[in-house]
Design brief:
This protein is mainly alpha-helical. It contains 21 helices and no strands. It has helices spanning 11-22, 25-29, 31-37, 44-69, 73-80, 85-115, 125-133, 148-167, 169-197, 201-209, 219-232, 239-244, 254-286, 290-293, 298-311, 314-350, 354-369, 377-417, 428-454, 462-483, 493-501. The radius of gyration is 22 Å and the shape is globular.
């Protein structure tokens, strides 16, 4: 007997969940620096071009695929063609891999949220983070002991992930996003308002938005734009296909794709204004250039900003609490979507109940995440994240575009989404999926491989890159091929096709 598929309680719930998945840590700590280092205001030209030619077309593809075939990536692609099932497993497995180390970063954010109340990081925030807090080992092959505050943080995050997804789509994921996402936006607006009114904020904002038009002619800037759009929208991770599979039959797909993309874009832009306003203030108080205080990723969130909050004095505690609350909330909405993408595929394949599968996924994921709470955790995170993003996810996106665009037929997705949407997308969408997106993603993969050969990532030894990088990619592909050999339970692909024909 076929198990009834979960559904969103409302279209607004779906949109908030999709935006919640897209709005993650990268919007806050990666985009501002990418914008700044790739031509400032001039970067907005390739950035918006990338949204229109790759971001929105791929969202429509994934929304349309999940909605049309009512399944997680493996089920949706198997229903399109049984030979393509393995391609559906790969993004689901990648989501699980990302989830295991994403909880580590969220653990840091949870700890720093508590540190904010007393500004426990002191004056030397760099030494505090890497030595006192993380207790980093000397190499990726020396685990060291467990870092207990990190371990506790990971445990808290996994419990939240489990509880929300255990409750289901409408009762868990939709409800938590309706609370966290609006709160996140309000908190970020407060940070932005204060950030742009700080003394010296104009230094940072001028540095951020002054266009360097010469950068627009550099191919690497365009690749950065496509990379930012691709990763920030949670594409090729199985999330958007999974989320759209829970939509009722008559749901506007095309407009939802545009709303998701531009809401994510708006939050990124908002974050950039607030962060560079604060960095301008920091530069002016220290009498240095913005270049010397601007950083991205871990350095921005856990080293540069804590130092800013200390310099701000009493008000700095409030903004420290607000900033790390933003990181935690943005991270939780994304981590929940990763759990759902991993669990939904197994629910579809095995026919097992949601509660059993979610519990299993969270238990196994938690067991793996514990390894990240050792002294070598940051090394694992750095290497695995680079390889999964640079090769795993980009390759999945490329194969999705080629498979749907050339073999299944891009027009079939468009013919499914247009009649149920407020507005139709034209044949330009076919051209994007068949030609533009594959060309850009192919260039990205080739560029990454050339860079890897010429200069090994992060200065790590080849032994470490093979052990924690290339091996993860190989494991992802191998598991995909193994899982697609198992028979489907509780769901018949054949009967579904016959219903479609009727």
């Amino acid at each position: 007997m076929t198990q009834k598929r979960d559904q969103w309680g409302s279209k607004a719930g779906f949109i908030l969940a999709a935006i919640g998945s897209a709005v993650g840590l990268g919007n806050i700590w990666r985009y501002p620096y990418v914008l700044y280092s790739n031509g400032g205001g001039a970067f907005l030209i390739p950035y918006f071009f990338a949204i229109l030619t790759a971001g929105i077309p791929l969202i429509i593809l994934e929304y349309g695929l999940g909605h049309k075939f009512k399944g997680s990536p493996p089920l949706a692609l198997a229903r399109a063609n049984k030979k393509w099932e393995w391609l559906g497993w790969w993004p689901s497995i990648n989501s699980f891999i990302i989830l295991t180390y994403y909880t580590l970063i969220l653990s840091w954010a949870v700890n720093y949220l508590f540190f904010s109340f007393t500004q426990a990081w002191g004056t030397d925030t760099n030494s505090f983070f890497f030595k006192d807090f993380l207790k980093m080992a000397d190499s990726p092959f020396k685990l060291g002991g467990f870092v207990w505050p990190v371990f506790v943080g990971i445990t808290i995050i996994w419990l939240i992930n489990w509880f929300v997804c255990f409750k289901g789509v409408s009762s868990g994921i939709e409800k938590i996003n309706k609370i966290l996402l609006p709160t996140l936006v309000i908190a970020m607006i407060i940070i932005v308002i204060r950030g742009v009114t700080l003394p010296g904020a104009s230094l940072g904002l001028n540095k951020l938005f002054t266009p360097d038009w010469s950068k627009v002619l550099e191919p690497k800037v365009w690749i950065s734009a496509y990379g930012q759009v691709f990763f920030s929208l949670s594409l090729a991770m199985g999330i958007m296909i999974t989320y759209s599979s829970y939509l009722p039959k008559k749901t506007d797909i095309n407009n939802s794709a545009f709303m998701t993309a531009f809401a994510n874009c708006g939050f990124e832009f908002l974050s950039a204004i607030g962060i560079f306003g604060i960095l301008g203030y920091m530069a002016s108080t220290q009498g240095v250039g913005v270049d010397e205080v601007a950083s991205q990723g871990i350095g921005l969130a856990f080293v540069a900003f804590p130092k800013v909050f200390t310099v701000m004095g009493g008000i700095g505690k409030f903004f420290g609490i607000l900033f790390f609350t933003c990181l935690v909330f943005a991270g939780i909405t994304s981590s929940i979507s990763l759990v759902e993408a991993s669990s939904s595929a197994l629910i579809d394949k095995t026919g097992a109940g949601r509660k059993k599968v979610v519990s299993l996924v969270c238990l196994v994921g938690y067991a793996i995440s514990i390894l990240y709470s050792t002294g070598a955790g940051l090394y694992f995170l750095d290497i695995i994240d680079n390889f999964v993003n640079s090769y795993g996810i980009v390759t999945v996106g490329l194969l999705e575009a080629i498979t749907i665009g050339w073999f299944f037929g891009a027009s079939k997705i468009r013919e499914h989404t247009n009649p149920i949407s407020y507005f139709s997308v034209g044949k330009w969408w076919n051209l994007m999926i068949k030609f533009v997106t594959p060309a850009v993603l192919t260039f990205m993969i080739i560029s990454n491989i050339i860079n890897e050969i010429s200069k090994p990532y992060g200065g790590y030894s080849q032994k470490a890159l093979i052990a924690y990088g290339w091996s993860v990619i190989i494991i992802g592909i191998a598991l995909s091929l193994i899982l697609c050999q198992r028979p489907w339970k509780d769901r018949s692909i054949t009967s579904y096709k016959s219903e479609e024909v009727k």
